[in-house]
Amino acid sequence: xxxxSDSPNENPRPISFNSARFLTSAARLDQCPPDxxxxxxxxxxxxxxxxxxxxxxxxxxxxxxxxxxPGRTRLINFFSLNRPGARLVDLPGYGYAKVTRELKEEWxxxxxxxxxxxxxxxxxxxxxxxxxxxxxFDRMMLDWCEHNQLPLTLLATKADKLxxxxxxxALNTMRGELAGHGCVQNVILFSAMKKxxxxxxxxxxxxxxxxxxxWAP
Length: 217
Known about the structure:
Blueprint: E1 21-26, E2 38-44, H1 50-57, E3 76-80, E4 86-90, H2 101-117, E5 121-129, H3 136-148, E6 152-157, H4 164-177, E7 184-189, H5 198-211
C-alpha cells in the first residue's frame, strides 16, 4: 500500500488505531468526505455493541457514541487515522430503534447508497451479539459483501456475557451459519469489557490497510 504523503520508495506509516479522531458526519452520500483513500466500515444491528467495539479498538471511550437507547446512531460517522487517506466509518445501525417506518426506510436508503457507490470502501467489519443468531440485517450485509467481493470480518461481541465454554460453542454455531460466504475472512470472539479479541482485530484491520492500494479519483 502506498502512502500518498511520502515518497513511493518509503514504507507507509504504521497504522495506530489509538490515533483515530472524529472527522465528520454525513446524512447522505454527497455529504461524505472526498471519495479517495481507504475506508473500513463498521456495521451492525442496533444494540449489537458496535460503538463499544469501535471505542475499544481505538482506546477512546468517547469516539463513537454509546447509548442505552438503541438506534441513536443515525448518521455515517467518519474517523481519520494517522495515515493520510485511511479512515474508519461507523455506519447507522437499525433493527431495534423505536422510530417511524419512514425514518427507518430513509436510513436504509442512505446506507445502501453509501454501500453501492463509495469507491474507497475496501473492507467491512460486521458486529453481531454472540448471544443472537445471524439476523436479517446481518444476512443482507453478508450477501452484499459476497456479491461485491468485499472482505468481511465478523466480530462476535459481548463474549463476556457467556461462560467460556458457552462462548466457544456459540462461536462455532455462528461459523456454521456463515459457511458458504467466501467474503468472510475472519470470525473473532470479542468483548469490549475484557478486551477479548482486541489484538487480533487490530492486526486484521492493519493488514487490510497495508494490503490495499488506496483508491483516488
